[in-house]
């Protein structure tokens, strides 16, 4: 073997160690925890605003979070490298350990001398005047118990639970498939979050810029508890195919809410959030005007409003703020003093000599669209791993029996091996012997 081959085999042998795979799993779990603690895929300004004044864990400011790619952990180069190393470790471990173990369990080992059986983990001997007859009875008993048997003259070999050796291979294969799906989804997946008001629609484009699907929002409602806190958001949608296909048949109507997404042609639609986007306002005797609202994070987490002048020259502005579509709307002057509260749908309220009436407040649905081509592989990997885990619970047992002599010196030697729960097999072997037709006491 050349020096280059030896140098290459050493890191591969180290990587195939199960302890290394477990260590990589712990590092990946820790990284996933970081990805959960730090908001993902936000704007650069978001991380500077959040972590520059208050560094994460007292160590990382916005620049540090961005340089370490902690703003997109699951698609970062180092995280995908960890997944690749773990997949390689599992493949090598399966190739060097699990596959030989499966091959060994499929090979029939022929022990022909009682001395060979006495060296095994569990061995029993039954003194009998007719060991050949007892060997035949043992064979029938094993066949009834589901054992596979290979018979020779005066001896037999039996095995059961070989499928248990397939379990670890399936677990490793399932994890590799799962990581492949996760990596594919992180690299090729798409994520889009938009606020959509009732009566509006959103066109989804494919990579070539062509309309793939049109998403129309017919209605959006917010269910609140008696204290006015939002409990559930519900959106009634219509999915329209592109071009001429939109008029060929009825559109697909669906309803989504929190924890009840919609999956359609590889796209998953989640009910993610809500916002206030406009207010229908009447100023004095003017017609009802629909004015846009903007978020005011400096006033609170979910506060929207607009600045409204009260004089024709634009002077003496007031701030109309809202925390929910139900109101009340609070009106503040430039000094921050509360001037009035207006109930949506209620009567007009005079503010600085100007009657203001809010007819209604328009809420928008926050819809999160995800397209993850790796989802089928992730689900398949989970299924394969679960199947492998169930098969791994099956104990692989091997048993050998040799008939020796006849008459008063006759003996039936029985021995076995098991990869797990050896105590159960040690209890089972004497029970097998007791089930035979003994002519003398063992």
Give an overview of the whole structure.
There is one protein chain. The protein is elongated. Strand 17 and strand 18 form a beta hairpin. It starts with a helix and ends in an 8-residue tail after the last helix. The longest helix is centred in the N-terminal third of the chain and has 30 residues, at 77-106. The model is unreliable at 438-442 (pLDDT under 50). Helix 2 runs antiparallel to helix 5. It folds into four domains: 3-101; 108-161 and 395-434, Kinase associated domain 1, KA1 (TATA-Binding Protein), CATH 3.30.310.80; 190-274 and 367-380, no CATH class; 277-362, no CATH class. The chain has helices spanning 3-15, 18-37, 44-51, 62-67, 77-106, 114-118, 131-144, 163-188, 245-248, 375-392, 422-434, and strands at 122-127, 148-152, 155-160, 190-196, 201-205, 211-224, 230-240, 252-257, 262-264, 267-283, 289-292, 294-295, 304-309, 317-322, 329-332, 338-342, 349-351, 354-371, 397-404, 411-418. Strands 4, 9, 10, 11, 17 and 18 form a six-stranded antiparallel sheet that branches. Strands 1-20-19-3-2 form a five-stranded antiparallel sheet. A five-stranded antiparallel sheet has the order 12-13-14-15-16, with no helix packed on it. The protein contains eleven helices and 20 strands. It is of the alpha+beta class and 442 residues long.
């Amino acid at each position: 073997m050349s020096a280059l081959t030896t140098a290459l085999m050493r890191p591969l042998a180290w990587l195939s160690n199960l302890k290394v795979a477990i260590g990589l799993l712990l590092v990946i779990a820790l990284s996933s925890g970081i990805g959960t603690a730090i908001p993902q895929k936000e704007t650069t300004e978001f991380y500077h605003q959040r972590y520059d004044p208050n560094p994460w864990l007292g160590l990382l400011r916005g620049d540090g979070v961005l340089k370490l790619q902690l703003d997109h952990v699951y698609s970062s180069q180092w995280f995908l490298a960890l997944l690749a190393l773990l997949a390689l470790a599992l493949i090598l471990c399966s190739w060097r350990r699990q596959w030989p173990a499966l091959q060994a369990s499929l090979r029939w080992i022929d022990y022909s001398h009682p001395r060979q059986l006495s060296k095994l983990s569990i061995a029993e001997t039954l003194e009998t005047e007719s060991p050949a007859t007892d060997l035949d009875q043992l064979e029938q008993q094993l066949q009834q118990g589901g054992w596979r048997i290979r018979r020779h003259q005066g001896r037999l070999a039996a095995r059961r639970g070989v499928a248990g050796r397939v379990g670890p291979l399936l677990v490793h294969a399932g994890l590799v498939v799962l990581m492949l799906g996760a990596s594919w989804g992180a690299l090729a997946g798409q994520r889009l979050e938009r606020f959509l008001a009732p009566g509006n629609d959103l066109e989804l484009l494919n990579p070539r810029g062509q309309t793939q699907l049109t998403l129309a929002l017919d209605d959006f409602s917010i269910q609140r508890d008696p204290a006015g806190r939002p409990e559930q958001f519900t959106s009634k949608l219509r999915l329209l195919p592109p071009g001429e296909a939109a008029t060929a048949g009825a559109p697909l109507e669906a309803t989504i809410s929190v924890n009840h997404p919609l999956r359609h042609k590889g796209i998953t639609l989640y009910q993610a959030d809500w916002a206030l986007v406009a207010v229908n306002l009447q100023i004095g005797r003017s017609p009802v005007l629909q004015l846009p609202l903007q978020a005011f994070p400096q006033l609170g987490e979910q506060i929207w409003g607009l600045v409204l002048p009260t004089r024709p020259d634009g002077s003496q502005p007031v701030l109309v703020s809202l925390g929910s579509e139900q109101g009340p709307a609070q009106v503040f002057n430039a000094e921050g003093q509360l001037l009035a509260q207006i109930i949506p749908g209620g009567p007009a309220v005079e503010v600085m000599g100007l009657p203001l009436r809010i007819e209604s407040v328009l809420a928008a649905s926050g819809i999160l669209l995800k397209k993850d081509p790796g989802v089928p592989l992730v689900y398949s990997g989970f299924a394969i791993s679960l199947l492998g885990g169930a098969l791994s619970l099956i104990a692989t047992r091997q048993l050998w029996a040799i008939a020796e002599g006849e008459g008063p010196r006759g003996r039936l030697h029985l021995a076995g091996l098991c990869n797990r729960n050896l105590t159960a097999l040690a209890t089972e072997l004497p029970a097998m012997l007791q089930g035979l037709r003994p002519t003398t006491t063992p």
